[in-house]
Every structure is written in structure tokens, then in C-alpha cells.
Amino acid sequence: MVILNVKFPEEWPGWKIRECQLNSMPLASGNCTRTSVTVPSEDVITVKVDPNLDTDPFSDSPVFRGEFQESVLFNNTPAVALKFAMRDDLIDDLVKEAKIYSGPLAPLQGSACPRSYGLYVGAIDGGMNIACLVLEYCGRVLPMPFPLLPLDLRVKILQRLGEIHRQGLLHGDFAERNVLEKDGDVRLIDFDNAVFGHECGCDMNFHPGEEAPEKASFGCDRLWEVCKHAMQIWKWFVQFVTIIIIFYLTHNAQTQVS
């Protein structure tokens, strides 16, 4: 068993508790018994929470940024995301997501999705059950709608989504809020709504900037719909979005000058 010791800031607008200890929860997904991180039994890992918040600390599912403290196990991990669940139904969702990370997403950790450092459970505030999924910190959510992103970034997101499809998974909640970007690289997150059993025949040639291919020959109806409607990567959409971006930048520049 691994103990996760979470240390909270002395002064911040978040929880009043200053420290909590949670126990690792063994994970298995289907016939897969792999875990995302191998750690010695009875080890203690400590994470210090960043006082700068990007989330509502009083929600039932806050996500805090943190750093491992004096850990030889994760000394190459500069930052992590602590995804908490504070209600029984949300804990169930987090358990499902953790199993997906340790199961079908295990080969994609560090590329299409963040690395997972395990799920930890316990109780705080007089017995309230909580769970915490510790993930690699991979940046912030996208700052604008998909169609306004540079075309190459949209294609990169599609490639990551395609890798997940090839593992037999549909994301289940694919949206801007579930895509992280850092230094031009992207990761997909939030897999508690993922659907198993998907068969994807797409060759991952998305034909960006070209005429839309026939849906029947694309190999995956779901990815075709994402390309056309969410990402708008095909010719007519690319031209239209380019005009919108030019108008936006010109209008914004004129506003700043005036």
C-alpha cells in the first residue's frame, strides 16, 4: 500500500485542512491488471498543493496543481494535477476513470493522455469519503473554441483522439474543456464518460484543408463528425474560419489603437 500525503497551503482561499493522508487503491480494468506507476509497498509520497487556484476549491470535484516533495520515485515529474472527488457518485466516476488510465489508456500515457500516478482514497472532516486521482500536469484547457485554433493544432488534437479510438475507446465527452495544451503539445483528459468496444477503421489521414472525404470511406463515423463539425478542418470551413480570424485580429488591433 502506498500512502499519499497531501499538504495544503497555510494561506489560501481553499480548504481549511492543512494536510490529509490517503491510501492507494489497487486498480484493474477488465482483464488488465497493470498499474500506471510501480511503487514500493508501504511507501509514502508527499504532494504540496500550489496556492494559485484555477478551480473552485469548494466544488465537489476540484482539481489542484501540486508538486511531489522529496520523492526519488517521481523526481523527474515537475508538477501534477490532483483530481478530487467529494461525493460517493463522483468517487465512483473517478474509480472508473482511474481504471481506464491503468487499462486501455496505459500505452498512451505521456502522449495522448497524462501519466497517471494512481488513485488514493480516504476520509476527511469527520469521516467524509474522498478520492484523489494523481495525474501528470499537462497545461491548461484550450483558450478558445476548436475552429479558432491553428489548423496544425487541430490536427494534432485529432491525432491524439484517433490514438484513443484505436484503443477501443470513445471519449464520451470530447470538448475544449477536456483538452490540455502546453508548449504546443496536447493531452486529452476526463474519461469517466468513455465508452468501450469502439472499432475504428480510420487511417488517421484527416485531409486538413482539402475537400471533405466521403463519410462512408473515412473509416470512422465519429471521427468524421468531429473533423467536420467540431474541428472544421476541411476546405470550406478552413476558408471561412480564416476570414473570421482575420476580422477578429483586425478589429482587435483597431480597438487597441483607438
Q: Unreliable runs, pLDDT <50, ≥5 residues?
A: 29-35
**Domains (count):** 2
- The CATH topology of the largest domain is given as Phosphorylase Kinase, domain 1
The overall average pLDDT, rounded, is 88
- What's the shape? globular
Oligomeric assembly: single chain
> How many beta-strand runs?
12
InterPro entries: Kinase-like_dom_sf
Protein name: Non-specific serine/threonine protein kinase
Q: Can you put this structure into words, describing what you see?
A:
This is Non-specific serine/threonine protein kinase. InterPro entries: Kinase-like_dom_sf (IPR011009). Helix content is 27%, strand content 24%. It is an alpha+beta fold and 258 residues long. It has two domains: 3-136, 2-Layer Sandwich (Phosphorylase Kinase, domain 1), CATH 3.30.200; 141-241, Transferase(Phosphotransferase), domain 1 (Orthogonal Bundle). A seven-stranded mixed β-barrel has the order 1-2-6-7-5-4-3. Strands 8-10-11 form a three-stranded antiparallel sheet, covered by helices on one side. A two-stranded antiparallel sheet has the order 9-12. Strand 10 (179-182) and strand 11 (185-188) form a beta hairpin. The longest helix has 23 residues, at 235-257. 30% of the residues are buried. Mean pLDDT is 88; it is low at 29-35.
Give the SSE layout:
Elements (H helix, E strand, L loop, with lengths): L2 E5 L11 E6 L19 E6 L13 E7 L10 E6 L2 H15 L13 E9 L3 E9 L3 E2 L9 H16 L2 E2 L8 E4 L2 E4 L6 E2 L18 H4 L2 H11 L3 H23 L1
Parallel strand pairs: 1-3
Antiparallel strand pairs: 1-2, 2-6, 3-4, 4-5, 5-7, 6-7, 8-10, 9-12, 10-11
Helix pairs in contact: 2-4
